[in-house]
Amino acid sequence: MSGKLVIGNWKMNTRGDSARQLAAALLADGETNREGVGIAAPAVYLAALAEQLKGGNIALSSQDVSRFAADGAFTGEVSAAMLADVGCRYALVGHSERRQYFREDNAALLAKMRNAIAAGVVPVLCVGETLEQRESGAYLDVVREQLAILAEIADGEYVVAYEPVWAIGTGKVASLEQIAEIHAFIKNWCLQNVSGSDKIRVLYGGSVKAENAEAILATENVGGALVGGASLDAGSFRVICQAAGKMI
Ligand code: PEP
Q1: Out of the domains of life, which is the source (predicted)?
Q2: What band does 132 get if pLDDT is binned at 50, 70 and 90?
Q3: 66 Cβ partners below 8 Å, 6+ apart?
Q4: Tens digit of pLDDT for each residue in 189-203?
């Protein structure tokens, strides 16, 4: 796929009806119903959405994937094979809310990445620092430590999403200089530590909105956007996808 990738993260929002309505609005619009646009929906709605999206171009993503690969006694878990079975193209891995509320660490995240890749699902590894880490100046070390698991993955496709925790759902957006700095850092780290790294796409996430999407997406080394709140509104998401679509 060439061009920018935009994935809407619905988080723990929507119900059956509202998920269907939102997907219908995205399907009806050529700016959102196209290659390079995805939606990360709640797990319980993935199968129904996969049916609804059939024949369109919107990619389906999960918001997580189990660190356990094999079927078995792992109550509450959804495996990578199950996600592939219902038609997920992507799986978010290590979103900051998962790291914060579910204490996901590098060992678990590496297992999730490997399971997704083995099942043919493209994992989207989310990295990013807290406000405290940003203000203390430790943010590059934090991101480097989160990226480290990529050096353990021999091959397979994946995406990285840089999402400063202090910019997620807060309305605070990283400045274009901050975004450019960290995206260059991630790109260089990948070039030095990961094979095939020239193909790794790095998304920006954190209060991306209709108003700021174009400038963020035009920033050097930004390969697309991971969009939370604004992806729940078809009109806002459309504008973000339209901005991305113009940049091939
Ligand atoms: C996210 O959930 O990944 C995110 C970036 O959220 P928001 O766009 O609402 O900040």
Answers
A1: Bacteria
A2: very high
A3: 74, 77, 78, 79, 80, 112, 115
A4: 999 999 877 789 999
8 is in an annotated binding site: no
SS3 5: strand
Beta strands in 25-170 (DSSP E): 37-40, 59-62, 90-93, 122-127, 159-162
| Nearest CA among 162, 156, 161 for reference residue 121 | 156
**Which tokens belong to 115?**
């399971």
Q: Residue with the nearest Cα to atom 6 of ligand 1?
A: 228
Number of the ligand 1 atom closest to the C-alpha atom of 205: 5
- Ligand 1 atom having least distance to the Cα of 167: 10
pLDDT per residue over 29-71, tens digit each? 999 999 999 999 999 999 999 999 999 999 999 999 999 999 9
pTM above 0.85, yes or no: yes
- H/E stretch holding 204 reads strand 201-205
> Per-residue pLDDT averaged across 119-142, rounded?
97
Strands 5-9 and 159-162, bridge-based pairing = unpaired
- Beta-bridged to residue 62, according to DSSP, are 91
The token pair at 24 is 């219908």
Residue nearest to atom 7 of ligand 1 (CA): 228
Mutating to test ligand 1, I would choose from 208, 217, 236 the residue with most ligand atoms within 8 A of its C-beta, which is 208
Instruction: Confirm whether residue 16 is marked as ligand binding.
Output: no
